[in-house]
Amino acid sequence: MQHLVEEGERPDNGVRMTTRDIVDQMSEVLLAGSETTSGTIACLFLELVRNPDVKEKLLATLPVLRPEYPTIDSVAIRTEPDFTYLNACIKEALRLHPIASEMGRRTGQDWVKLAGYDLPPHTVVSASYRHLHRNPAFWPEPMRFWPERWLEGEQRGDAPEPE
What we know:
This protein is mostly helical. It has one domain (about 1-150): CATH 1.10.630.10. It has 5 helices and 4 strands. The protein has helices at about 1-5, 20-50, 50-60, 85-95, 130-135; strands at about 100-105, 110-115, 115-120, 125-130. A two-stranded antiparallel ribbon has the order 1-4. The protein has a two-stranded antiparallel ribbon with strand order 2-3. A hairpin with a 2-residue loop joins β2 and β3 (about 115-120). α2 (about 20-50) packs across α4 and α3 (about 50-60) runs antiparallel to α4. The mean pLDDT is about 90.
């Protein structure tokens, strides 16, 4: 917040942020930043409870962290091989339980043809992430919590290769 107060500029016009702009940004960070993270973690824990074999494999792959282990700040991501399966579990939790279930956009000022339909100007069109992420045409056994689908090579086990 201090950075926004001292140096914040609006990205759309480069003008210094007003108090209202800063309040809006901080509200978004607090709501979007915490709710999405806690929702993802809750869904990951739910799937680990439902899938004890995955939980066991995950716990077996994670290193024991010691006090001398480097601290990770808020912008770093653990990419070491020890965290590969954890990252796959997180991706699979997000696939099954997307934080945003759909995303909408409005068409422009002209009629547009989309998927065989003629849409008038300013029509809101939405895509369902939940439906896409659970569609068997794209995801074999779509309702299965299967982190191996995000791994490469032999780590995939019996998970089919992406097409």
